[in-house]
Amino acid sequence: MRKIISFMHISLDGFVAGVNGELDWAMVGEEIFSHVSKRIGESDTALYGRVTYQMMEDYWPTAGSQPSASKLDVDHAKWYEKVHKVVLSKTIDRESLDNTEIISDNLVERINEIKQQPGEDILIFGSPSATHSLMKLNLVDGYWLFVNPIVLGQGTRLFVDIDERIKLKLLNTRQFNCGVTELNYIVDKSV
């Protein structure tokens, strides 16, 4: 069965966005972007909340064709074009979207159907609200976190309204030159 992995930048004090949803504190230099591109290149499905999806749609469809586009931009734009996108939203019009599936109801059933389909892991990109919804339903199977060397003090937390403990197993770590530390966890469902 495919796994749903939440991919997020996170502050040292556990925030994934600032007070107004800003991510200007997240370090996403070439070293990190290159590393992330390798892993997401192996993924065939991306899951987004509505806000993150609209942000991605505003940028990536044309980013690779810009005169100033780097090789990483071009490669990611090509990946974004071909990857199957799943969006959790009750307001997006599902008729006008290519290679995009909108889930607006029956979340557990629909997500489990997708997890049963052949393919690679499903990556949730950012999307704190979507991640919170999936976490409450015990549908997140892992966390791919990039811990940034900053304390925000307030904003949107990753782990909120958790009713029970979530035991995690560390798969690997990596330290980047900019001070960001990658932590790759899988949910230990044996407990």
Automatic annotation (TrEMBL):
Matches recorded under Pfam families: RibD_C (PF01872)
Transmembrane parts of this sequence: none
GO molecular function: 5-amino-6-(5-phosphoribosylamino)uracil reductase activity
InterPro entries: DHFR-like_dom_sf, RibDG_C, Riboflavin_Biosynth_HTPR
Gene Ontology BP terms: riboflavin biosynthetic process
Organism domain of life: Bacteria
Domain Bacterial bifunctional deaminase-reductase C-terminal per the UniProt entry, residue ranges: 2-180
SUPFAM superfamilies: Dihydrofolate reductase-like (SSF53597)
Name recorded for this polypeptide: Dihydrofolate reductase
Organism in which the protein naturally occurs: Chryseobacterium lactis
